[in-house]
Amino acid sequence: MTQDTPDTPIYIEVAVDSVDDAMRAVDAGATRLELCASLSEGGLTPSAGLIDATLRRVDMPVFVIVRPRPGDFLYSASEIDVMLRDVETARTAGAHGIVSGALNANGTIDEDGVRALLHAANPLPFTFHRAVDFSRNVDEAADRLAALGVQRMLTSGGALSAADGSAAIARMVQRLGKHLMVMAGGGIRSSNVKQILRDTGVRDVHLGPRRTQESVMHHRAQAPRVSRAMDADQFSWSTLDDAEVCRTVDAVRSAATTG
Predict the structure, then answer these.
(1) How many CB atoms lie within 10 A of CB 94?
(2) Residue 142 — left, alpha, or beta (φ > 0 → left; ψ -120 to 50 → alpha)?
(3) Which residue of 43, 45, 143, 194 is surrounded by the most CB atoms within 10 Å?
(4) For the whole model, what pTM was predicted?
(5) What is the 3-state secondary structure (H, E, C) of 172-235?
(6) Phi/psi class of residue 213: alpha, beta or left (left: φ > 0; alpha: ψ in -120 to 50)?
């Protein structure tokens, strides 16, 4: 599994949380989808209905995230049990891969939890998500993931963004690229993706740019509130910025052409 071969395709994974966004991502040039619910909370496990409907509407690899709640990645035994059941649901529905992960309280990889998730996902490929960036040491965590047999790891190199963590990402690609596919994610946009590709040597990038979608409802009731957030707007929501995905895809293709 090499990552630094110039003729290896560059994969563009786009995070989506609706069927409409999944179709827009495909039209924009994505080559893989990460299907989530609640991207505003970092991405949670999507419903069985969303998984099934998305798989029916798009002809593209769909990797399903399994994350039972927002917050940290330290999970109780009951939460792990739920995650294993969600992996089975996604696998049975026809998902092409699973995205998940778990940490111990000391910031190391929860190896027992990850082994169980890998076993439940088999034979689907497994991506360890950005929980790795919350570990105590991303290099140590990457080594453990490679040893466990994880196929892909999404990371910003432990930094706020992939651009900031490019040196760490490049280091992991060099050390582990034959054993663990390192996918760069975190703030990747059309304006920086070429530089990130050059600096890191990754052949997988992950993004999920968002924009505000305004409701077209004419009637707007003022009294009811279905969100606890004090500033929540009941008549707008976050959706995929497919125009930015298009620009990023063009930038990636340009980088691949020019080397």
Answers:
(1) 12
(2) alpha
(3) 45
(4) 0.90
(5) HHHHHCCCCEEEEECCCCCCCHHHHHHHHCCCEEEECCEEEEECCCCCCCCCCCCCCCCCCCCC
(6) beta
